[in-house]
Amino acid sequence: MRAITFDIDWAPDWAIELCASLVAEFESRATFFVTHQSPILRSLERDTSRFEVGLHPNFLQGSTQGGTFSTVLDHCLEIVPTARTLRTHALMQSTPLFELVADRYPQIESDVSLLLPFHEDLRPTDIYLGRSNRRLVRLPYNWEDDIVAEWPGWSWTNETKRKAGLEIYDFHPIHIALNTDRMERYRSFKASLNGKPLTETTPQDVAPFVNRGEGARSYLQRLLQYGSDVPSFKISDITDLHLGQECKVL
């Protein structure tokens, strides 16, 4: 079961729109994990048959989203009150965090913060936590663009055939814009901004650093191209199927 996901990570609207346009072009589905308020999010939320918007809370020290687990989650839910799923920024996770989610945030049904690179036959896993002992569905994912960009032996021309179990792919809009092939490209781009916020960058800022060969964008396009044979699900579609609930697929 394949899912295409995006960690927005403070990307500019035009880069997020690029990702959404690619998904729509190939009549697929995707989940966007959100870090900040943005006009483009409203259009994603309206297209509920194609897109899902989840939370991407940043619990690291110095986070602009808040200083505690609860303030960060409250901040993110103000941006996306309908969110049913989350993936934490930098994959920060702990038992106290998930206990808090179980007890105080019942609308959050699933977590996608466990990365197991290139593993096959991954399955949803239930955990019961907190005073409420509420079920949280954990969906491990097996691929992330910035991780594989540094992975020994990885090639962006690798095949995209269907694999057993869960196939959850994680892309970042800025890496789609850059068509990132190696992280040095992204680091050079970031250095060129001289402190300019990523949210304010323009296509003209990115243009000198765009990879013209194989990279994250071309790999995403190939994944989407085979969508008719391997349909993509939203994260909450997978959760619903796991819980035995009805799920509509394109």
Sheet-strand content, in percent, reads 5-15%
Total of helices? 10
The CATH architecture designation is: Alpha-Beta Barrel
Low-confidence stretches: none
Q: Would you tell me the structural class of the helices and strands? A: alpha/beta
Q: Quick one: overall form?
A: globular
Average per-residue pLDDT, rounded, comes to: 94
Spell out the blueprint of helices and strands:
Layout: E1 2-7, H1 13-25, E2 30-34, H2 39-46, E3 51-55, H3 69-79, E4 85-86, H4 95-104, E5 110-111, E6 125-129, E7 134-138, E8 143-144, H5 145-148, E9 167-171, H6 173-178, H7 183-192, H8 203-206, H9 216-225, H10 235-242
In short:
The chain is α/β, with parallel strands linked by helices and 250 residues long.
Describe this structure in words.
- By secondary structure, this protein is of the alpha/beta class.
- It has one domain (about 1-240): Glycoside hydrolase/deacetylase (TIM Barrel, Alpha-Beta Barrel).
- It has 10 helices and 9 strands.
- The strands form 2 sheets. Strands 3-2-1-9-8 form a 5-stranded parallel sheet.
- β2, α2 (about 40-45) and β3 (about 50-55) form a beta-alpha-beta unit.
- The longest helix is centred in the N-terminal third of the chain and has 13 residues, at about 15-25.
- It is globular.
- The model has no long low-confidence stretch (mean pLDDT about 95).
